[in-house]
Amino acid sequence: MSADLPPLRRFEIPQLVTVEKNPAGLDVLLIRTPEAQADIFLHGAHVTHFQPQGAAPVLFMSGASYFAPGKPIRGGIPVIFPWFGGLEGLPEAPAHGFARTQTWELRGVSRLEKDVEVCLALHSSPESQALWPHEFELHARILVGPQLRWELEVCNSSNSAWSFEEALHTYFAVHDVRQVCVKGLAETDYFDKTDGFSRKRQGADPIRIASETDRIFGDTVSTCEVEDPASERALTVSKSGSKTTVVWNPWIAKAKAMPDFGDDEWPGMLCVETANVGDNRVTLQPGERHLMSCTLSVVSLPETAG
Ligand code: BG6
User: Fold this and answer.
1) Is-contact 196 202, C-beta < 8 A?
2) Is residue 304 part of a domain?
3) Are the CB atoms for 187 and 206 separated by under 8 Å?
4) I want to staple 135 with a disulfide (CB 3.0 to 4.6 A). Which of 1, 153, 158, 237 is the partner?
5) Which ligand 1 atom is the nearest neighbour of the CA of 273?
6) Closest-lying ligand 1 atom to the alpha carbon of residue 193
7) pLDDT of 203-241, one tens digit each?
8) Quick check: 146 pLDDT over 80?
9) In this structure, how many other beta carbons lie within 10 angstroms of the beta carbon of residue 267?
10) CA-CA distance, 222 to 3, in Å (whole number)?
């Protein structure tokens, strides 16, 4: 390997993984194996593309997304930490925390049996401490193969306890959100953000999307399944270390109000987020760690029928 190779290129694996700069100058890992494709930006440790061999892309990406330092990417899997939504007491703080807009350090890329393993890290800095006065380390382990597995480890590297919220804010690509249903959250309570956070209960039926939907389901560890008959597939998200699931679609007016989201893109996406927020926020003592993970799979619908 040539001594003047740019530092990130030492992580490349011939024929399988390359490192490039996107037009905005952000570093992105392009993974292309016989099992799957994925794109992972160091900006936010953000997976913007995942496609197992033989399947259509699993993740929605907005054509209007920013790809710029300091701005979140719209689509894929944003990493939300250490607060979800706004930060109480600091209205000017960025929504959903700062992990999604910082550049993560690439620690390793390896070929495992059917997967490519990508490890990234982010730790507290003067910029993070100006907003959130705690010392932390985040470790990401992303496995790209027939499934996508995302593991987020949060470590308290300070000498006092603190608590945090987190989410792997997955944007699924669907044919038409009005025709899908979400299974796995029946008989679960949720806070309805479109109705002043009022507490409601999902009945026995799967969730169908017929208006702006922004629901925070607490105390649930279930696997969720997004059945998308028009695409002849279901997308499943199973999880561990997560007690909250968020289901979000902005619908018409909110889509129009978001500058980094196309006015007509809302039918093509549905977020089902693996999270710990609100009452499920996590407290860590000094030196403690917490691991949350999600695994995304594609299942052809005939297999799920019945
Ligand atoms: C969801 C929230 O998780 O993220 C919504 O529940 C929010 O309320 C959405 O609108 C998108 O947030 P952002 O900050 O990426 O526009």
Assistant:
1) no
2) no
3) no
4) 158
5) 3
6) 8
7) 999 999 999 999 999 999 999 999 999 999 999 999 999
8) yes
9) 18
10) 49
- Do the domain assignments include residue 282? yes
In a domain, 101, yes or no: yes
Ligand 1 touching residue 95 (CB < 6 A): yes
**SS3 assignment, position 100:** helix
Residues belonging to the active site: 169, 273
Please give the DSSP secondary-structure letter assigned to residue 97: B
HSE, side-chain direction, 13 A CA sphere, residue 145? 15
Overall domain count for the chain? 1
Ligand 1 center from residue 14 Cα (angstroms): 38
Cα(8)–Cα(28) distance, rounded to whole angstroms?
10
Indicate if ligand 1 lies below 6 Å from the C-beta of 72.
yes
Q: Which of 108, 106, 110, 86 is nearest to 96 (CA)?
A: 86
Q: What b-and-e string marks burial along 155-171, b requiring 16 or more CB atoms within 10 Å of the CB? A: bbebeeebebbbbbbbb
What count of other Cβ atoms lies within 10 Å of the Cβ of residue 183? 17
Domain assignment of residue 306, yes or no: no
Q: How far is the CA of 89 from the centre of ligand 1 (A)?
A: 19
**Ligand 1: centre distance to CA 85 (Å):** 7
Give the pLDDT confidence of 21-69 residue by residue, as tens digits. 998 899 999 999 999 999 999 999 999 999 999 999 999 999 999 999 9
Structure letter (DSSP) for residue 129? H
CA–CA separation, 61 and 76 (whole Å)? 6
Domain residue limits at 264:
7-297
Look up the CATH number of the domain holding residue 290. Answer: 2.70.98.10
Note the pTM of the prediction, 2 decimals: 0.97
